[in-house]
Design goal:
alpha+beta; D-Maltodextrin-Binding Protein, domain 2; 2 domains; 8-stranded mixed β-sheet; 5-stranded mixed β-sheet; 15 strands; 32% helix; binds D-MYO-inositol-1-phosphate; binds calcium ion
């Protein structure tokens, strides 16, 4: 394992342990929005990850959901989602994770996604297959939409919900099952290991998807990012096992 990936896994495990310890407790809420919740623990988790990374690589940049740190001129950037699935976490639904990716000169190089409730660590290094708890993983072979299980996210505002509904209507009747699980990073990790076949969302941020994108692409899966139709700084995502065809549907 490269030193960079080892560091990412250490930081993700530490942040994950913090989340596990606080799971099911009362949470300090920083912001309660119409379709989102921001917790003090989001910031605490990012602080911990930032500290770990910058004590080893003080010259690198951090780009996280809770803000930036380090040397923003650096071409090595750590992309951090300190709790992906904050709403699940807040409601006591045990499906959330910590996601850390590193990119150099704009290219994703490594990623770690840790689910503290399942004690599952998904990783991808500079080379080689993505892994779950150290064992190589790969996406499913399902090639027919009628066999596929597809997960969707509706993001955080009315526009993204409306746009997501339109997409949902296009494919929901064509696939075996649909799911809305509440963590984009885990959706991608789950496709990378064959638990799910595809994931669609209208408005997503880089920290939600960076690590999972690299894991999925490494195994031959496809991640298609487009300009979000509802937010200029966000992407729309269609991702799948690399075998499915969503032409004209999403
Ligand atoms: C959210 C989750 C959710 C997705 C949202 C994301 P957060 O991340 O990944 O599944 O639908 O678009 O913003 O806010 O829990 O880190
Ligand atoms: Ca997120």
């Amino acid at each position: 394992m490269s030193p960079e990936l080892e560091l990412a896994t250490i930081a993700a495990r530490e942040a994950g342990a913090l989340l596990r310890e606080n799971f099911g407790c009362d949470h300090e809420v920083d912001e309660m929005l119409t379709h989102d919740i921001k917790l003090a623990l989001d910031v605490k988790s990012q602080d911990l990850i930032e500290k770990r990374i910058l004590e080893t690589f003080p010259e690198h940049a951090i780009y996280g959901e809770e803000g930036i740190a380090g040397n923003q001129e650096s071409d090595t950037e750590w992309i951090v989602d300190p709790i992906d699935g904050t709403v699940n976490f807040f409601f006591g639904l045990p499906h959330f994770c910590v996601s850390i990716a590193m990119r150099q000169a704009g290219e994703l190089k490594i990623g770690a996604i840790y689910d503290p409730m399942m004690d599952e660590m998904f990783t991808v290094d500079f080379e080689g297959p993505a892994t779950r708890n150290g064992k190589p993983i790969r996406p499913s072979n399902r090639a027919e939409l009628s066999e596929a299980v597809v997960t969707i996210g509706f993001s955080k505002n009315k526009e993204s919900i409306d746009a997501g509904m339109e997409k949902y209507k296009n494919f929901a009747h064509r696939v075996r099952k649909t799911r809305m699980m509440g963590s984009a990073a885990l959706a991608l990790a789950y496709i990378a290991c064959g638990r799910l076949d595809a994931y669609v969302e209208e408005m997503i941020s880089i920290w939600d998807i960076a690590a999972g994108q690299l894991m999925l692409e490494r195994g031959g899966g496809k991640v298609e990012l487009s300009q979000s139709g509802v937010h200029s700084d966000r992407s729309g995502i269609l991702s799948h096992n690399g075998k499915l065809n969503f032409d004209g549907l999403v």
